[in-house]
Here is the input.
Amino acid sequence: MFKEFSKGLIKENPVFVLALGLCPALGVTSKVVNALGMGAGVIFVLIGSNIFVSLLKNFIPDKVRIPAYIVIIASFVTVVEMMMEAFLPSLYDALGVFVPLIVVNCVILGRAEAFANKNGVGASILDALGMGIGFTLALVVIAFVREVLGSGSITLIGMGSWDGVIKIPGLYESPIRVFSLAAGALLVMGYLKALLAWSTDRKAVKK
Amino acid sequence: MTYVGIIITFVFINNFILSQFMGLCPFIGVSKNVESAVGMGFAVTFVMSIAALATWAIQNLILVPLHIEFLQTITFILMIAALVQFVEMFVQKSSPSLYKALGIYLPLITTNCAVLGIALIAVRSNYNALESFVAGISAGLGFLLAIVLMSTIREKLDSEWIPKPFRGTPIAFITGGLMALAFMAFDKALLNNLIG
Here is the structure.
C-alpha cells in the first residue's frame, strides 16, 4: 500500500518525470507561497476526484467516461475556487486564471484515467495523496529557485506580525529579474530536468 | 482596446505559450516536426476562436441573466469538450484528408489549457462578442507562431550534438526559454508606439 503513496513523490513525479501539469508548474511559481497554494488546491481536487471516480467506476459507461471525469473534476475545482475566494482572497488574486485552470491540469485527469478507474477507494486516496504531494514538491522546488534568483526573497505563509518574507541580503537589492519572468521559468525547468536526468544516469551507471 | 490592439497583444505581447504559460504540454509534446506542429497550431486556433465566441454567449446569455456565474468553470469546460467532439465529427464528415492530418490532435485540445484560458480571459476582460472572437483567433495564431518556430528549431537541433542529460525535453524547455527572452522585446511600450 505504501508504494501507491510513495511512487508519486520522486520515482513517478508528475511534473519532472511524467511531464504532466506543466502550465501551472510554471505559471504560478514566481513565489513559493503561490506554489504551496496551488499545490493545496490540486491535492484537494485530486483526492476528491479520485474518490468519486473510484466509487463510480462500475456505473460510468466506458464511452462517456472522459466527460464524466471532467464534470467530477470541475465540481471540485468550483469548490476550491469559491473557498479560496472567500478565505484566501490575496492568494486567489495571485493565482488568477490558474485556479479555474486546475480543471485541465492533466495530472488530475491522468490519475482518474490511469489509476482511480481501476483501483479501490483506499488505494486511490493514497495515489492521489502521493501524486498531489509530488506535484506540490516539484512546484515548490521550481518556485524556490525562481524566487531566490528572481526576487532575492523567499515568501512563505505569513503568521501574526511576521509577513512571511525572508529577504536574502545582496540578492534582494539587485535580483536577477529574468528568473521571475516567463523566460526564466522555462530555463529553470529545463535545467532542473537536465539535473534530474544526469543524476538518474549516474545512479544507473553505478549499479 | 481596438481590434488591432487585441491582435498585437495576444499574438506577440501576451503570447499564450511564451508569456502566459498556457498550452505548454502540446508545445513540448507535439513540436518534434514542423508538419504536426502546423496541424496542431491550426486545430487549436480553430477551436480557440469558436470557444471564445461560444463561452461569451454562455456567460452573457445564460449565466449572467440567471445569476449562476459560479457554474462558469463547469459549463465552460463542458462546452469546450462538446465543441471539440463536434469539430472532430464535422471535420471527419466534411474533409477526410484534413481529419487525417489533424485527427490525433483534436481530442488532445480539450485538455489544452490555452482554450479554457482564452475563454476565461475574454470573460474577465469584459470583451464583447466580436472582441472575444478576435482575441480567440489572435491567441490561437500566437500559439501557432510559437509552436511552428519551436518545431523548426527542434528539427535543426536533431542533427546537433547535445550533452546527454539535456537531450529530449530539457533542451526543448531551454530553447523555449530563449524564445521567451526574445519575445520580451514585444511589450506594452511597443504597442503604444505602434497604435498610439
Summary: Chain B touches chain A through 46 residues (CB under 8 Å). The two ends of chain B are 11 Å apart (CA to CA).
